[in-house]
Amino acid sequence: MDKSHKETISIRFTSTAFMVLAIAIFKPFGLEVWQWQTYLHLLFIFLLGLCSCFLTEVILRYAVRMPRSYERGIGYIISRNLRFQLINTPLVSLFICLYRHFAMSSHVESNRLSLSNYLETLVIIAFLSFAIGLYWRFKFRSRYLAMELEETKQLNEQLKRLPTANETEEQSNHSLQERLTLSGTTNESVTLQLSHLLYIEAVGNYVKVCYLRESQTHTDMLRATMKQMEETLRPYPMIVRCHRAFLVNLAKVEQIISHSGSTQLLIRHCHELLHVSRSNMAQVKAAINSHSSL
Q1: What is the 3-state secondary structure (H, E, C) of 93-117?
Q2: CB-based contacts of 209: which residues, under 8 Å, 6+ apart?
Q3: How many CB atoms lie within 10 A of CB 199?
Q4: Which of 117, 78, 89 shows the shortest CA–CA distance to 15?
Q5: H/E segment holding residue 216
Q6: Number of neighbours of residue 19 by Cβ within 10 angstroms
Q7: Contact (CB, 8 A) for 267 and 248
């Protein structure tokens, strides 16, 4: 058994123990009416919690296709942990609700299986799951930050190889990519070379197109939506959505900056900093990885 599997078992064991400890303190589900049997019920709830955790791990690995991995980056880990909680919370609530019905309803009539009992159990377990998640996030915060910095360092190294890859792509598709016209819902349009485009920003009902003109940074406003711009630029994989408000030309990114959990792109020539949302980070990384290897 490798180190990561041992750590996973340790985390699940500790989390389940925390859940059972909280249940032992607050005594929901009518536990206060039992005597020495209370400890026996808590032991069975503990075992049910562990079974639920390992069943959720199996579901994530084989059904959702998200195995536990530290090599896929901090975004993957956070996404996987969130999915684990979303699957495990209703699952362990169901197990406990069934246990209440079959093992605890003889002394407490209200433990019989019902929708209200399941919802009650779900609320309690969801609260505990949220508290446990905060604990582990705080505990591993330094590790996550170190991984994030290492990931940013690797992406910056790949960025240095992007211009060459981009030039090669432009040479092979010269007739298609030499000139690009961006149009809005009115008669206005912007015509530019693709290699001169820096970024596009959503500004209310307009988009701001930032590009190079005679080696100087220039901006034009078009009455259009980001969705229209995204559709127009879809044939060019180097232009990606990094945020709901920004489309960026990755060939014009000078550096990726990561600080306190936020990521920004430093753009060449204009030295603007564009925010990268967590939901779009995977797309940015995929584009950088695919083009840096060309």
Answers
A1: HHHHHHHHHHHCCCCCHHHCCCHHH
A2: 182, 190, 192, 197, 200, 219, 220, 221, 222
A3: 23
A4: 89
A5: strand 216-222
A6: 21
A7: yes
7 CB-near residues (< 8 Å, 6+ apart): none
Q: End-to-end CA distance of the chain: give it in Å, rounded.
A: 37
DSSP SS3 for 284: helix
How far apart CA 1 and CA 224 sit, in angstroms, is: 56
Give the pLDDT confidence of 165-215 residue by residue, as tens digits: 444 444 444 433 467 888 888 888 888 888 899 999 999 999 999 999 888
Mind listing the pLDDT tens digit for each residue in 5-18? 788 889 999 999 99
Whole-angstrom distance, CA of residue 294 vs CA of residue 162: 9
The pTM is what? 0.62
- List the structure tokens of 169: 């792509």
Confidence of residue 237 (pLDDT cuts 50, 70, 90): confident
d(CA 218, CA 233): 19
Number of H helices, E strands in the chain: 9, 10
Which pLDDT does position 215 carry in this prediction?
A: 81
Question: The tokens of 180 are what?
Answer: 């690009």
- Asked whether the beta carbons of 118 and 93 are under 8 A apart, the reply is yes
pLDDT of residue 138: 84
